Amino acid sequence: MPQSAVDWNAEWSRYAATGYAPTGAPKGRAPMTPAEKAARRVKNTAVETQSKVANAVPPWSSLKGDWRFWLAIIGGISLIGAGLNAVAMQAGGAGVGTV
After folding, report:
1. Is 22 left (phi over 0), alpha (psi -120 to 50) or beta?
2. Does the structure show a pLDDT above 80 at 38?
3. pTM of the full predicted structure?
4. Mean predicted confidence (pLDDT) in 7-33
5. CA–CA distance from 70 to each of 39, 59, 74, 81, 99 (Å)?
6. What pLDDT, on the 0 to 100 scale, is given for residue 98?
7. Three-state SS letters, 32-83
8. 6, 25 contact by CB (below 8 A)
């Protein structure tokens, strides 16, 4: 059985007698500063948000069989082509695809 620096029997009897568990850092470690707590909170929030975003994107296998995905791709390509043609016409060209 691994040895511990904490006398758990004494800790338990203190808890049983008072019903109070001391909070704070474990023995041998300095308590966290408010800046460290804020940094940890920001990191945890970022990891949680990243996890949610990663789970929100459906896998390719489900996208390639969905007609709405392909309709959006075709519509996006059409809009990009129309935008490029409009920019070319504004620049004084004859447009894309014309001679």
Report:
1. beta
2. yes
3. 0.39
4. 78
5. 42, 15, 6, 17, 31
6. 60
7. CCHHHHHHHHHHHHHHHHHHHHHHHCCCHHHHCCCHHHHHHHHHHHHHHHHH
8. no
Amino acid at 70: W
* Distance of alpha carbon 35 from alpha carbon 80, whole angstroms: 47
Q: 93 falls in which pLDDT band (50, 70, 90)? A: low
| 8 Å CB contact between 14 and 36 | no
Question: What single DSSP character describes residue 29?
Answer: S
Pair of tokens at residue 39: 């940094």
| 45 burial via Cβ count (<10 Å: 0-12, 13-18, 19+) | exposed
Q: Is the pLDDT of residue 26 over 90?
A: no
Phi-psi region of 59 (alpha: psi -120 to 50; beta: other; left: phi over 0): beta
User: In which residue are the tokens 């006398």 written?
Assistant: 7
